[in-house]
Specification:
With 979 residues, the chain is α/β, with parallel strands linked by helices. The protein folds into 5 domains: 184 residues, P-loop containing nucleotide triphosphate hydrolases (Rossmann fold), CATH 3.40.50; 86 residues, no CATH class; 183 residues, 3-Layer(aba) Sandwich (Rossmann fold); 175 residues; 197 residues, Lambda Exonuclease, Chain A, CATH 3.90.320. The strands form 5 sheets. It has a 6-stranded parallel sheet, sandwiched between helices. Strand 15 and strand 16 form a beta hairpin. The longest helix is centred in the C-terminal third of the chain and has 25 residues. The termini are far apart.
Length: 979
Amino acid sequence: MTNVAGRIFTIPPGMAFVDALAAHLLAEADGDPLRLAEMEVLLPNRRACRSGREAFLRLSGGKPLLLPRLRPMDGGDGDEAELFADGPLDIPPAISPIERHLLLTRLVLAMGSGRGGLPPTPDQAARLAAELAALLDAVQIERIDFSRLETLVPEDYAEHWQVTLKFLTIVTELWPALLGDRLDPQERINRILDAQAARWRSDPPDTPVIAAGSTGSRPASAELIAVIAGLPRGKVVLPGLDLAMDEAAWAALDESHPQFGMKKLLAHLGVERRAVRPLGREPDPRGARAALLAEALRPAATCEAWRDMGEFPAATLDGVSRLDAPTPREEAGAIALILRETLEKDGRTAALVTPDRTLARRVAAELERWGLVIDDSAGQPLDTSEPGCFLRLLAEMVADDFAPHATLSCLKHPLAAAGDDTAAFRALVRRLETAALRGPRPAPGIAGLKAAAKDGKIRDGLDRVAAALEPFVRVMAQETAPLADLVRTHMEAAEALAATPLLPGPARLWKGEAGEALAGWAGDLTTAAQAVGATFPAIPPRFYPALFEQLLSGQVVRQAWGSHPRLFLWGPMEARLQKADVMVLGGLNEGTWPGEAQADPWMSRPMRAAFGLPAPERKIGLAAHDFAMAFAAPRVVLSRSARVDGTPTVPARWLLRLKAVMDAAGLDFGEDATPFLDWHTRLDRPEAFERVAPPAPRPPVTARPRKLSVTEIETWMRDPYGIYAKHILGLRALDPIDADPGAAEYGSLVHAAIETFLNEISGPLPADAETRLLTIGREVFADVLDRPGVWAFWWPRFVSVARWLVAHESARRADIARTHCEIKGALEIDAPAGPFLLHARADRVDVLRDGTLALVDYKTGQPPSPREVAAGYAPQLPLEAAIARFGGFEGVAPAEVARMLYWRLKGGADGGEEKSAGDNPRQLTDQAIEGLKALVATFDDERTPYGARPHPDRAPKYSDYQHLARIREWSTAAEDAEE
């Protein structure tokens, strides 16, 4: 082998890698553009190649240049490796990722079992297929022979690993036969790298070839780097090799250390570390900082060297600050301010480096307050993009048979129009919501929506929706359907639903960067579904939305233009070879950066080691290398959140080690980033807080209500604002969407069943009274009894209520001459502003044999106490007694009320109980009449406001209008004032 010792170089972490490399190559060319153009530079990925071109542009001052051939070495950024040499290579094509996913899903469906031994659903199979694809990639990257699996699991391993081995026959036996002449993507990259290495080995070029920035983590890449190092004019440039590390620490490196990958590569090249030279003569401008971090990250076995650690310059950490935010929200806000501040200085650049995609999205959103769009190297997930969401919602709506929530989510999407103007269609959907989708669920399908809506315009709109979706709905209604048919009709339905009078559906659905990316992916999915054809089993359509979402997950769209030229959002790998003037390293918590060492779903640690796969800690070592490279930027902010989702976090191990070494060396961070947290808080904090007074509307007397029900009188006393909102503003609370019967609905059903039962029976109760009541109850509950919540919770309560009611009613029958159920009544009283009408619908009025009356109010909840009734805050029964005294109930002669009763129909073991509203009904009735007259007179004065909860201790437990009264704002303010 050629001695390559003098051809291995490194660029220290304190220097921008691509800029230092470009400067070196420009110096090598010595101003000759042809010498520069004949160079070939291999960088890790396409992103690094783009950064290299930008570096040459910066160094040339914007002048045009003939650049070297910058080519990616592998597909680490998700793209297939390019051919390096001119001319075609005789290598079979790679199977498309989506077709591979579908074929592996088919094998899993044929082979595997889901939870509980049941066959996996299609989406579960797709998730397992993704894991299998990841295993295939890992094994092919490491160039391991799958035949070794046969001897991997001896008898002393757990039985479930034997089951796993049997399942992995998918990739050892079935997959190669199914793949045929095509290659897996990673295998094709290996062959391209091998072919290039073979060409250069047999026919070395006489032009410069430089492999830069790669640590040779892929064996095929490491071999190609070795070939380049042996070329006559070959060079290898390593990123941030630590030349100052002591030999004991170098020998003790493990896979979690940032230098481990380069140690392994140097061993493969047969080169000693001391033979590696810095590229260029410029010293590392932040060498002391890099040395401090290297000391902090030294292998655990050599940490005793900290005792004899030398001194570091006082300026070692100049430009480095630490930001410990309370939560990710504050962290993102402070980071956005740091980036924004950088733009105040001409030409300065700033980047957020983080693997935390949630934090990245938060920072991007915070920057939008200044109209700044940041370049995100990771891109936006396609499944959360506008067209991606539309496709997912459409599939869910049809699979759920146009259930209310799914229907509104899809039809309210900005892309939904069904051939109509978007604004008109949105108004139509809002009308459909209030007419048919609030309250109990309508019948399934569009036919059920039309029957519930009854409005002609709404029906016409639903007809247009039905016409657009008809092929997809027809396929989804089948017991099983081919995947190709599902995908084809799904895309056709989406295009038809997106159409407007001015634009056809495809023009709206596939527009923009996200639409174009999704159109490409949808085309690949359609082609792949057709390619697998009949070999992919027909699936029950109800599983199609989950399968579609699983297939779409992981796809991203990257913004091509429109972002700010001096702000960047990089993943750790992208930041390895680049530098910005200000670099914020965000999300530095254990489990985020570094990420957790995930357990392999297929093999235990000993099995992975025996098989030849790297340990999970290898990813931690790569993350540590990325951190070390970014840490050497001119200005660095180390950022983390103390709590995430309410849970305390642990700082990244690198922060803990760095803090320990700083304390030992007597160093502090050179800058303080905590003011940014305060500034972020002040951004949205008003200069002063104005006390919010409770609402006190005073409408004119002519606008005030002249009639109320007995139940509304209670509301009038406890919360006048509720009466104002309902009767003067005319506001009504909307029913919940797709509502199951709640306590109020249950009460109505019980009232209806008892009314029907009592109206059918006169005189003593028959022997089968309980059976007849339950039969009536089933008829009343019929429309909702098939709902699980009603059957499991409400119906058993009614059975218990029926048992109690029959027993209790039997004991009372002898004293009752006649019973009136759900009877209407009214009473007019004189008031300053004119007559006021009190009306009621009494649950039950019993005419007793002594000529007096008994009022019964059914309560499925807690009835008011006698004290509340006596105080006038529960006036329903006393006011009904007043109506009865003056003959206000239809068919009931004027009479005194002798008994006012609450029947609490609570269910449970007791079934129910009877409670009296008070011992002196006549006195309560007199007080109620006088109290009502006084209340009406008070509100007939237009100076009397309709206040919200004038007596907080008497406020209603629930009101539809609490949010309109903004009670939480002013009630909290009042409490603060009292304190």
